[in-house]
Design brief:
- This protein is mainly alpha-helical and about 200 residues long.
- The protein has 2 domains: about 110 residues, Rna Polymerase Sigma Factor, Chain: A; about 80 residues, Winged helix-like DNA-binding domain superfamily/Winged helix DNA-binding domain (Arc Repressor Mutant, subunit A, Orthogonal Bundle), CATH 1.10.10.
- The protein is built from 10 helices and no strands.
- It is elongated and about 65 Å long.
Length: about 200
């Protein structure tokens, strides 16, 4: 996690202030997709989320000369997108129960953007955890959760019993949950509420 004292980030922000379009492009490329994901946890509307994030970047460029970031760049952008997403929800007064849950949950609270785990961060953590699994566990897990094979199909392909497959996948899940315990609520937000395909734990 970068902070306001990170030299590369400070240089990037300084270049942006000095009208460096390459710096702006780098920031946009690095954060755009993740910010749209983040906004979508509030709006539940992909088009609106894209509009919100695009507007945030437009304002970032327009106000670059007076930019003052006291946190990390990531936190600054998340905070700005969060505020605009909440404003949009309040303006339309939509999905009151869902909005109440999101707005009041500590993991997505107004002051916790620095600790929010971006989609790319989460995916990287999952890949690292998967690579740590013993080969036999990882093989069975991938065949079930990624290739969508059932236990009998996996057993037939590997030449083992269904019970053996159950044990391997069960142990894989235990190890993955242990490795990803700090990310479990984020997994719930991104992959249960959003129903985003990809990581399945």
């Amino acid at each position: 996690m970068t902070g306001p004292g990170d030299s590369q980030e400070l240089l990037l922000i300084e270049n942006l202030k000095n009208n460096d379009k390459a710096a702006f492009t780098l920031i946009f490329t690095r954060f755009y997709k993740n910010l749209v994901h983040f906004s979508y946890t509030y709006t539940r509307n992909p088009d609106i989320s894209e509009e919100i994030v695009q507007d945030v970047f437009l304002k970032l460029w327009e106000n670059r000369s007076t930019l003052h970031i006291q946190t990390s760049l990531k936190s600054y952008l998340l905070k700005t997108v969060q505020n605009k997403s909440i404003d949009w929800m309040r303006h339309l007064n939509i999905r009151e129960n869902y909005a109440s849950f999101i707005l009041n949950h500590p993991a997505l609270a107004q002051n916790n953007t620095e600790d929010y785990v971006l989609h790319a961060d989460l995916e990287s953590a999952f890949k690292r955890a998967l690579n740590k699994l013993p080969a036999l566990y990882a093989e069975a897990y991938k065949m079930n959760r990624i290739e969508a094979l059932n236990y009998a199909e996996i057993a037939g392909r590997l030449g083992v019993s269904v019970r053996t497959v159950e044990v391997r996948i069960g142990k894989a899940l235990i190890l993955l949950h242990d490795e990803l315990k700090d990310y479990l609520f984020t997994l719930f937000i991104l992959y249960s509420l959003l129903q985003t395909p990809g990581i399945i734990v």
